[in-house]
Amino acid sequence: MASKKGGKKANGEDLEAAILRWFECEGEPANVQSLTDALGSKFGKQLVQNTLEQCLKEQKLLAKDIKKARFYFLASPAPGSNDEGSDVGSHKIDLVKQLRQLRNGVSMLSSELSVLLQAQTSSKRATTIASLVSECAALRSRLQALHVIAGKESSCVSDDVSLLIHRYKRARELWRDRKRITVCVIDAVLGDSCGPQELEDIFGLSTDEQMNLCLSGTALTLPATVSS
């Protein structure tokens, strides 16, 4: 039993020496978790915390609570160190405070930047609207010009339509004349001795009835305004 107690005491002394040596070498504040990790998990977290509190009571270390975490740092310079090293711990704490202030400042600047970006977007939107209004006015002017041109060309279009209708009617008249002349030639040459089937087989001629065609069935329906 005595040997076990001696082992624990040596373990605690070794841990205290390791903690003080770490602070002397690193010269920066640390909490229980970060110090336990830095020591390579050689000692338990609870033992590290107890040793830190013991060093705090003996004024070998100082502590500062930041939010829910307690940071420990050296209370006095280690033997052989200069005066600058004695203020390293408090200097780190001041740096943490300054960092928070800088974060708050960045947050405020970010909010102001968002407002400025929104204002720039509104200005850009107004510029876009003005450009679209200008384009719309130009399109309306173009449309009016096209209406004027269409009015001037309407008479020419009417003349073209009349010419097309005249050509259409002339083509149908030529169809009637061709059919009438063809029938007359067949009657004069062959008479009644050659029927429709023989005309198709021998001469390659087909009647409208055989092809299911009629002149009236192929006629186009013309508008009442131009059919006359």
UniProtKB/TrEMBL annotation:
A GO cellular component entry from the record: condensed nuclear chromosome
Keyword vocabulary terms for this entry: DNA recombination, Meiosis, Nucleus
Reading the lineage from the top rank, the first entry is: Eukaryota
* GO MF annotation list: double-stranded DNA binding; recombinase activator activity
Range of residues in the leader sequence:
none
State the species of origin.
Trypanosoma brucei equiperdum
What's the protein called, per UniProt?
A: Tat binding protein 1(TBP-1)-interacting protein (TBPIP)
What family, per the record?
Answer: Belongs to the HOP2 family.
Q: Tell me where it mainly resides.
A: nucleus
| Pfam families recorded | WHD_TBPIP (PF07106)
Where does the Homologous-pairing protein 2 winged helix domain lie?
15-73
> Per its UniProt record, what InterPro entries does this chain match?
Hop2_WH_dom, WH-like_DNA-bd_sf
What processes in GO biological process is this protein linked to?
Answer: homologous chromosome pairing at meiosis; meiotic joint molecule formation; meiotic strand invasion involved in reciprocal meiotic recombination
**UniProt KW Nucleus keyword:** yes
